[in-house]
């Protein structure tokens, strides 16, 4: 009886191999031959599972995006004053042991700039993360009755988180400093929407 091939398990091995290679060499250093070697598969097995390198990279990126969204959901689901900070730190991949994942993310972003299929995969996960941040910003402002454009603030925070990730990877900022900047921005928003802050900022006399 012919041996049954677990194609799903094989694709998972390929995706894991892509992530390890991208971490070590960047996306341009990922070749089908190297992926096959890293995954412990034959070239033929890898080629039968994917039409080309871009399809293989798209699946690997989809895995990164899915993990990213799942963690953001989990952080946002814990009701506490620090929920916004937790989600932002996770979005920025500034936690302990997340540098390798951040390097893989940046490698994919660079490739996505010139590869429409990868850009589409990145965009697919963006609306849910932006929606989570929008909800958390709105919750921060809700208790004070302050007028805040939660969606615009969420977009700004997301852009800040992405930018800090890049600066840390390039060595322009230390991880602790980047974490502090992001947390301070979230706390500044909370302070600005407190009723006492509104009273202090209002006219006197």
TrEMBL record:
Assigned keywords, A-Z: DNA-binding, Repressor, Transcription, Transcription regulation
Residue ranges the UniProt entry marks as DNA-binding: 31-50
The keyword RNA-binding belongs to this UniProt entry's keyword annotation: no
Pfam families from the UniProt entry: TetR_C_6, TetR_N
Transmembrane segments: none
Highest taxon of the lineage: Bacteria
The protein, known as: Transcriptional regulator, TetR family
Species: Streptomyces zhaozhouensis
């Amino acid at each position: 009886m012919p041996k049954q091939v677990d194609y799903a398990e094989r694709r998972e091995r390929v995706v894991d191999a892509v992530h390890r290679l991208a971490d070590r060499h960047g996306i341009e250093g990922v070749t089908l031959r190297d992926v096959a070697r890293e995954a412990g598969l034959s070239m033929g097995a890898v080629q039968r599972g994917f039409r080309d390198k871009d399809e293989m990279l798209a699946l690997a990126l989809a895995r990164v995006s899915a993990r990213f969204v799942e963690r953001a959901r989990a952080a946002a689901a814990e009701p506490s004053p620090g929920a916004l900070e937790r989600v932002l730190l996770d979005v920025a991949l500034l936690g302990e042991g997340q540098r390798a994942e951040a390097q893989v993310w940046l490698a994919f972003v660079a490739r996505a700039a010139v590869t429409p299929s990868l850009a589409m995969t990145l965009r697919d996960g963006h609306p849910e993360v932006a929606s989570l941040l929008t909800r958390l910003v709105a919750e921060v402002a809700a208790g004070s009755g302050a007028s805040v454009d939660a969606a615009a603030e969420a977009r700004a925070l997301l852009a800040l988180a992405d930018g800090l990730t890049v600066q840390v990877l390039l060595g322009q900022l230390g991880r602790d400093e980047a974490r502090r900047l992001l947390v301070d921005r979230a706390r500044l928003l909370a302070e600005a929407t407190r009723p006492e802050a509104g009273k202090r900022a209002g006219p006197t006399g």
